[in-house]
Design a protein that fits this description.
With 681 residues, the protein is of the alpha/beta class. The protein is built from 22 helices and 21 strands. A seven-stranded parallel sheet has the order 11-12-10-13-14-9-15, sandwiched between helices. The chain has a six-stranded parallel sheet with strand order 16-21-20-17-19-18, sandwiched between helices. Strands 2-4-5-7-6 form a five-stranded mixed barrel. Bound molecules: adenosine-5'-diphosphate and magnesium ion. The site of magnesium ion has 4 residues, from helix 10. Magnesium ion (MG) binds next to helix 10.
């Protein structure tokens, strides 16, 4: 079995040059090559009519031989055999065979053959000709695998090399899943699956092979993450003591929801434990994640540890700073803000405060993990809106103080099965209830014809003392037809909104300008904020009740849901108006999902379904190995895989048993390959 993990150089069919090409694409062993899956298949059992043949390419046709001619010889002595044939429609086809007399002799007049070969147009005889055809009955694999090609490596070459790998596999055997699983989840043996994915016997076996390999792919990943979770657990130096939270709870301007309290208890239990917390806090927009973070910071401070709250943008950092200050300062907890736009002098001062332990809670952007920042006693790191940060950034911060407790707050609700997969190395807390008294945001999708009415409606809200957002997809008028912040704001100020205070907000403004604007909006010195999606994540102005989104079809569903989440943050009824000029059936379907549900988890599921996982996770940088066959939308399989991992680890917690040896090698190999270290099996 180890032969599968030897260098691919040892294969007789792999030359030195080819070895180098394989190296370039990350294929080092026969095992890797066996997991280099075809991108498509050509089914030679499905002949086409001769008339439909693609000239100068290989085609599959089914023809009956009508005549066999005497061989002729070229000047160089090569034998040329010719025959005549017709297909079902009566279209004639010439057959030309160079040298291969056995193929020619095998053909019988009156018999029908499925053949595969290059078809050319013989103008002189006014018919097509097939050259050196292969007969289907002679073909080893009537369904032929087609591989992704790279320079210096063609599909047939890969096929040949894989054939040799499959022979090794045949000889030594290899199985990663316990028999018991294969029965329970109805999965074919690994060798059979690998053989069928590369050389399918038929389409049904190909599908079974795919299912088995997809299952295994998810299973391996999930198992690796589960083991990682266990093994990266060094004892923490930051074990904390029970502390009463009453004082904190009492100081809040609202009663916490049960979900918030439960999450806080889970977090406290983690931080009192012997291992560093590694927890994901998931909750729909507006579910009150910040208050949970504040509770964690409070608990930490009472234990004389510093905590850090890192946000992806300055606007958010500012806002969190203001919120935490409001919650915690009166309890004598010292808070400081660290962002990139501080002056060098300010930074120096704050660094000193932090290093001296004169501050308890540090809120900031990625500036919080600059080299120059030295923490005094860092016990907790919280990252908000996690998908904006790469895994590497998260880890950089975590390394700042040995192994502090980690809490990650995710802005995009992800279906639970999926969260367990993507954040498989973390514990998960979910805020599944909204604060009391919230009314679901009423959502309408309309065309531009109703813009006028929508604006009137918005102004009614302004008259009631509320505020509004108008989101546009562009900043400046380009040559596109999209609404742009600057010109639309000018237009509105001159017309409809001339009696109201408006302001613009977009990514090209300086940090200071953005901050000032947000500050004014918070304090209701601005009624309508005309902006880009800079307000998408996290911004919290409870008095705002109208969210108008122009060219709504330009945004993803999850993004629209995030934008909608900027309103509905108080007991006032809020509204989200989606305006679009492109009313196609797809747009209608997408937008109606938002009108029909305010549940972020459902929106995420629909988004995932509509866009596919590639796009959905495009910006997420989850840092996991790419999935080749498995689909993250297959929630049935995800459940099965999670069940399988649980069963396996219950029986053999660190995969020490002999029958799990292959699986252990397999998982270890995967984790090493993708730098997910800490695996010390
Ligand atoms: P998100 O989960 O989207 O980050 P926030 O933490 O910004 O949500 O909270 C949304 C709003 O709800 C804030 O204005 C916050 O003060 C308020 N809030 C949080 N928890 C509660 C609660 N239990 N009851 C009432 N309002 C709450
Ligand atoms: Mg938030």
């Amino acid at each position: 079995m180890e032969k599968l993990f030897f260098s691919i150089e040892n294969l007789t069919s792999v030359s030195k040059t080819r070895f180098k090409v394989y190296q370039k694409i990350g294929i080092a062993t026969p095992y890797d090559l066996l997991y280099y899956f075809p991108r498509a298949y050509k089914d030679y059992r499905e002949p086409i009519a001769v008339e439909e043949a693609i000239i100068d390419q290989k085609n599959v046709v089914s023809v009956t031989i009508t005549e066999k001619k005497k061989p002729t010889y070229s000047s160089r002595g090569m034998a040329i055999f010719r025959a005549e044939a017709v297909d079902e429609d009566g279209t004639e086809l010439g057959i030309v065979i160079f040298n291969q007399k056995y193929t020619f002799y095998a053909l019988e007049i009156g018999k029908t053959y499925i053949m595969y070969g290059k078809i050319v147009d013989n103008f002189r005889d006014n018919r097509y000709e097939i050259q050196n055809p292969q007969l289907l009955k002679d073909m080893e694999n009537p369904i032929e695998a087609i591989y992704p090609q790279t320079a210096g490596l063609t599909s047939p070459m890969i096929r040949t090399n894989i054939k040799e790998c499959l022979q090794i596999l045949d000889f030594y055997g290899f199985e990663t899943l316990p028999v018991f699983f294969r029965k329970r989840f109805n999965l074919m043996p690994l060798c059979k699956a690998l053989k069928n994915i590369h050389q399918p016997e038929n389409l049904e076996e190909l599908e079974n092979a795919r299912r088995r390999l997809a299952f295994e792919e998810l299973f391996r990943l999930q198992l690796g993450l589960a083991l990682l979770k266990d093994m990266s657990r060094q004892k923490t130096e930051y074990s904390m003591q029970e502390t009463s939270m009453e004082e904190f709870y009492k100081s809040l301007p609202f009663e916490l929801t049960t979900a918030q309290k439960r999450a806080i208890q889970e977090i406290i239990a983690d931080m009192k434990g012997n291992f560093p917390m590694n927890r994901l806090l998931q909750g729909d927009v507006g579910s009150g994640k910040t208050a949970v973070a504040a509770a964690a910071c409070y608990f930490c401070a009472r234990n004389h540890f510093q905590s850090v709250l890192m946000a992806p943008t300055e606007i958010l950092a500012e806002q969190h700073y203001a919120t935490l200050k409001n919650f915690l300062e009166k309890l004598n907890i010292r808070i400081t803000l660290l962002t990139g736009s501080l002056t060098a002098k300010q930074k120096k001062l704050r660094y000193a405060e932090i290093a001296e332990g004169e501050t308890d809670v540090i809120v900031g952007t990625h500036a919080v993990f600059q080299k120059a920042v030295e923490y005094h006693h860092l016990g907790l790191v919280i990252t908000d809106e996690q998908h904006r940060f790469g895994v590497a950034q998260r880890n950089a911060l975590a390394e700042k103080g040995g192994t502090p407790h980690k809490l990650v707050m995710s802005a995009t609700p992800i279906p639970r099965t999926l969260a367990l997969m993507i954040y498989g190395d973390m514990e998960v807390s979910i805020l599944d209830t909204m604060p009391n008294g919230r009314l679901p945001v009423q959502t309408f999708a309309v065309t531009g014809k109703l813009r006028e009415r929508a604006l009137n409606f918005m102004m009614k809200e302004l008259e009631k003392g509320r505020q509004a957002y108008i989101v546009c997809p562009a900043i400046e008028e380009a040559d596109s037809e999209l609404k742009s912040v600057i010109s639309y704001a000018e237009q509105l100020q001159k017309t409809k909104l001339n009696n109201w205070k408006t302001a613009i907000l977009h990514g090209q403004m300086t940090a200071q300008e953005k901050e000032d604007t947000m500050q004014k909006f918070h304090q209701h010195e601005i009624d309508v904020l005309i902006c880009t999606t800079v307000v998408e994540v996290g911004v919290d102005v409870p008095n705002a009740t109208v969210m108008m989104i122009e060219d709504a079809d330009r945004f993803g569903l999850s993004q629209l849901h995030q934008l909608r989440g900027r309103v509905g943050r108080s007991s006032h009824q809020s509204y989200c108006i989606l305006i679009t000029e492109h009313v196609t059936p797809e747009v209608r379907e997408r937008l109606s999902i938002l009108s029909n549900t305010t549940d972020g988890f459902k929106v995420a599921e629909a988004d995932l379904e509509l866009r596919g996982p590639g796009d959905f996770f495009g910006s997420m940088q989850h840092g996991l190995p790419p999935l080749k066959l498995a689909k993250l939308t297959d929630s049935k399989m995800l459940y099965e895989v999670q069940e399988a991992v649980e069963i396996l680890l219950q029986n053999d917690a660190d995969l020490r048993r002999e029958e799990h040896k292959a699986l252990r090698m397999d998982v270890q190999y995967l984790m090493e390959k993708y730098g997910m270290n800490g695996m010390n099996l």
